[in-house]
Amino acid sequence: MIFERTSSRSACLFIILSFLFLSLSFNAYSNDNQNSFYGIKTDFSFEETFGYRSAVKTFWKDKTSRYSSIVEMDLVKSPTKVKKYKGRYNAFSTLEKSFYDHEFVYYKPKLMDGEKAPLIIIVPPVVGITPLDYISANYFANSGFGVVVLKLNVPTSKMEFKLDDIGPMWKNYIDKVRAFIDVAHNLPGADITKIGIKGVSLGGITAALSSGRDPRIKASVIFMGGIDLPTIMAHSVQPVVKKLRQKKMKELDLLNKEDYEELLREKIKLGLPFLTDGRKAKDYFLFVALEDDYVPVEVQVGLRQKLGFPEALFLEKGHLMNGIFYSVHLKRMKEYYKKRFSLNNFSQH
Predict the structure, then answer these.
(1) 76, 326, 152, 38: CA torsion to nearest 10
(2) Strand boundaries in 181-299, DSSP class E
(3) What class is the 48-340 domain?
(4) What are the extents of the domains in the chain?
């Protein structure tokens, strides 16, 4: 099941949460309680348009435009050895021309005096943060990692957008991850020289794009993710994406998905200067669903090829089933993070 040991009680809890996640998935397209975004970036390109040194210089220059800060962080009482903090951080959005804030939950593992732990950032799937994400965070924290769950906004089927706006919206979304990394040094016990990220589905896309835009992320677990946004938007059967596509194709008087994809390729370009430059295949671990029609399998396989064939686990069944039961792979993820951060003697305290 989820962890190395299970009991009838934990198995029952897992089944209940699985049905909850399934229900959320089917109702994602009608969820009005989430902020609408569909951050998909305009300068999409598999070819790097500027050198690595230039990209690093631009990266640190861009950092100053976010003005990010943690505005609140309170310790929550917990009976376990893991300390849990709930907080909010804010930053300036150059796209929205205003400040925004998002909630986060930080799990601090039990540490010796002066000791610091690698930090894993969990980003949300299309349904938003679910109980399974908190279970994952608690599992990693009990294994000795610091973990942050970011409550970012997710898309809805009622959102309106222009094709020319897609790119800036994705950049804006990824910058919200980067803005949190800017202030991660304020987290007690977090080693910000060892930052990992984990995402499933939309979260996997977010994790891949964030790694391509932020060299501070050293280890990425990408679960059913990709970076080929035109293919995803044109062919995904995920309810939110499908409804947005149908609405946009009707608006543009397009008759088939291939024409829509071609138009998206003209409009969507995404510069990812740190996706491969300055990196090695070991910076990534991929989970590829072989029967996926939400994030098409060719997109997932194409990402692995682009990254230099990093270690991967190929999953049977489709997107929804693997999304519901992704927690069975937590131990594999933990072992990857330990190996990536050279923590051979790393164990839970």
Answers:
(1) -170
(2) 190-200, 217-223, 269-270, 284-289
(3) alpha beta
(4) 48-340
